[in-house]
User: Fold these one by one.
Assistant:
Number 1:
Amino acid sequence: MTANLKIWRESASLILTAKTIFGTPNFYNYKIVCLKRSSKSGFMPDTYVFPGGNLSPSDSSLDWIKLYENFGFCKQSFDDLQAAENIPNVLTQHETNCLPKYLSFRICAIRETFEECGILLGRPKINSADTTVSNWASFIGGKELILWQHKVHDDSEQFLKMCSHFEFCPDVWALKNWSHWITPPSYLTSKFNTIFFLTTLNQIPTVHKDEREIQDLMWTTPEQCIEMNNQQKVLLPVPQFYEMSRLKTISDVESLSKFATERAKFGFETYWPNRVKTNEAMYTILPGDDLYKKNDENNSEITHVDHLPESRTKNRILHRSKYSNVIEIENFKPKCNHIAPSAYFNKGC
C-alpha cells in the first residue's frame, strides 16, 4: 500500500456509546450518537456520521504534555495507548516537536466531539485506574459550555485554553483503537485518512449540537440505525454502515466495552475499499474478500465489469441504491482480533 497520501486529510472519528436503563437481555442496552452532516457540506452531505473531523495542528502541540504533567500524568502514562501491532502508517509518521500521532488523533476526536455535540470527555484529576469507561464535564453549565463550544469551533487552539481554564484534561485513555478507513481514490470530492475510536459512557449525557454544521443529532442502537437506513430515513456512508453492522452483533454495553478494551492492542486493519460497478449494481469490495486488490492513490477509476466472478470468501457491500445496502459475508474472518459485521439483507431491495 502506498504510504504517501498527500491529498487525503488526516482525521479522527469517535464511536460514542452510552448505556441506557431500558435494556433487557434480548435488546440493546446502549445507544450511539449520530450526527447529520449539513446539506452544504462538501463531503457526504445529508449523511449520518459519528462525531469527528480533521486533525488540527493544535491537536499535536507539545503544550498538551505540559497540561497532562500539571495533572500528574507523565509521558509513561500514555504507553498503553498505542497498539502493540498492526499500526497504520498515518499513526507512525511522527513530526518533530509534535505529539505522537496516536495521542494527537485522540485529542482531535475528543475536540471534534465537543465542537459538534457539546460532549466534553475528560478527567478533572488523576482518579481510579479504570480506563474502560469515559467521563464527561457535566459540571460545566449550559451557557458557558456553548460559549466555549463556539470558541473552539472557530479556533481549535481554544480547546487547550478551555481545558486549562477548567482544570480538565482530555480523557485519551478511554478512547479504544477500533478501525481505520481511507476514502477510495475514485471519490471526486474530499478524501480522508481516518482513525476510528470507540468509547463508552455510563449514561447518555446532555448534548448541544452545533447548528452551523449539524442538521440533526440522534441516539440510536445499531439495529435501529440500520433499519432507518433501510426505510430511507437515514443515509449512511460506507464506513458508518459497515461499523453499525459490526456493532449490531454485540447488544450488551459491558461486553462491548470489554471487547474494545481487550482488542485495542491488536491494532488496525486498513480498510481502503475498492469500488466495482457491474450491470446490476455498485459494489464496495473490502479487505479479506477474494476480489479485493490493494489500493493505490493514483487508481482513481471505478472498475467496470459485467458481473463479478465467483469467489469463496466475501467481505463486500452491494449497493443497489444509496439506501439499498447489503453486506455479503462468507468464509470471512477479520484480522486484528476484530468481529465481522452482521450480514444484513435490505428488505427494500
Number 2:
Amino acid sequence: MAAIILRNACRRTLLQSYSPAAPLLAARTIVLRSVQPENRQGESHDDRNARLKRPQSPHLTIYAPQLTSMLSITHRMTGMTLAGYATLLGLGALVLPHDANHYLTMLEGLNGPTLFALKFTLAYPFAFHATNGVRHLFWDIGKFLSIKEVYNTGYVMLLVSGAIATGLTFL
C-alpha cells in the first residue's frame, strides 16, 4: 500500500513540474550530416597523419623497460619457444629418415662449447618458463604481490632458472 502511495506521489510531482511549453523553449536544432572521409588514393596512414600535421605517438620509444614487463614478455616468448620445440620434435619424428638415437649420436660428436651452447639453448626456455610459472602460481594464491616482493621474486626466479638450465646442460 505504501509503495502505491509513494508511486502516485512521484507521478504527481513529475506531472506538476512538467510544463507543455518547456520542450519548446529548450528545443535545439540538430542537423545530421554524413561526413565522407577524405581519402586520397594510395595515401598511407602515416602519410595522411603527416599531411594533417598530426603528431606521431612515441609508443615504445618513450617506455622505460621494467623487470616485470621484461619477465612477462620473456615468459610468453619461452612458452612459444617450447611449443615450437615440441612441434619441431614431433614433425621431425614423422619426417626424418632415422630414429632419435641416430641424431643423439650425431650430437654427442660435437665439441664441448658447441654442445654446451646447444644444450643450454634447449634447457633455458624450459627452466625459465617453469620457474616463472611457479612464481605465477604463488601470485594466484595471493602471495608475494607487493612491488618489493614482485621484484625480489623476479630476481630470485632469474637466478634459479639460470641454475636449473646450467644443471640440465651438464646432464
Number 3:
Amino acid sequence: MEKEGYLAAGYNYIAVDDCWLEKKRDANKRMVADRQRFPSGIKALADYVHGKGLKFGIYQDYGTKTCAGYPGVLGYEEIDVKTFAEWEVDYIKLDGCNVDTSQFDTGYPAFGKLLNETGRPILYSCSWPAYQDNPNYTSIAKNCNLWRNYRDIQDSWTSVKNIMQWFAKNQDELVKYAGPGHWNDPDMLIIGNFGLSLDQARVQMAVWSILAAPLLMSVDLATIRPEFKEVLLNEDIIAVDQDPLGKQGLRVWNGSDCEIWNRELGDGSYAIAFVNLREDGAPFTLQASFDNMKIPKQIYKVKDLYKDEKNVLCDLKDKFETRINPTGLY
C-alpha cells in the first residue's frame, strides 16, 4: 500500500477482520491476540502500520462471541475499549453476532461513548442496521461513522448486483442519513479477486463511488493483476467518492435491464454511471434524455473517467447515446 501508490491515492487504513483473537481472554479478562498469527501482539502491529504512514483497524463484535466464535465485547466493553486505545487502534468495526439485536439501540451508542471518552480519534464502523428489520437511522447516524446496511458481500457479480438493487430500492430512506462523518456502507470492494470481470469491477468502483461508500479493498495486493490495480487507483473516480459535499447519489432510471446512477458533486458537476445489467453477448445501445439522467438541460463538458479522454464539449440536446458492454458501464 505504501510503495505502490495506494496510500497516495487515499487508501489509508489497514484493518484486520475476525479470527485475530485467542479463544479465551487472559487472567485479567483482557483480549489476547492469536499467539501464532500475531506473536508480537497487536500494539507492535499497529506501530508497524503507523510507521508506514497508515492507520490501523481491527474487528470486534457486540456479542458474547464474534461471528467466527472468538470472544466478543459484551460484558467487557470498558476494558476492551481501554485496550484498543492502548494499542493505538484507529478504526473499529463492531459486528452484531451472538447477541439479542434489541440491545443494539443502547449498546452501540454506549460503546461509541466509551470510544470518545478515550480521547483517541477512532473511526467507528457499526453493523447495527444490518441485523435489524427497522433500524433507527437517526440514532445510527448520530452514533456511528459508517454502518453496514445489508448482508455481507460475496466474491461474485450476483452479490454486487444484489447490493446495488437493495440500495436502489431503499435509497429514498438511506440518503437522508449520509454525509460527512456518517456514511452508508455497502461493504468491501472485491475488485481483483476471482468473482468479477474487468467490466464488472469497473461497475462496482463507479457505483460505490456514486453511493459515497467507504472504499475498503479486500484483495491480495501482492498478486493483483495490473488492470484491476488500475481500477482501484483511478484518481478521478476516487475523487468522486471523496467529494467534500458528501452527498450520496441515486439510481435515477432503470429500464431495458440497464440503470443510470447520478451523484451531484460539490463543484456543481455530476458523476453519472450508465450500467448495463444485461448478460447477452454484445454491447447494448442506451439512449438517455436529460430527464432520464436527472440533470438540468444545458451544454456539458463530458469526461470518461475510465478512458481518461480529454474533456469534450458536448451539446447533449435531448439525449445522450452510448454503447455499453454486457455487465459493464460507461
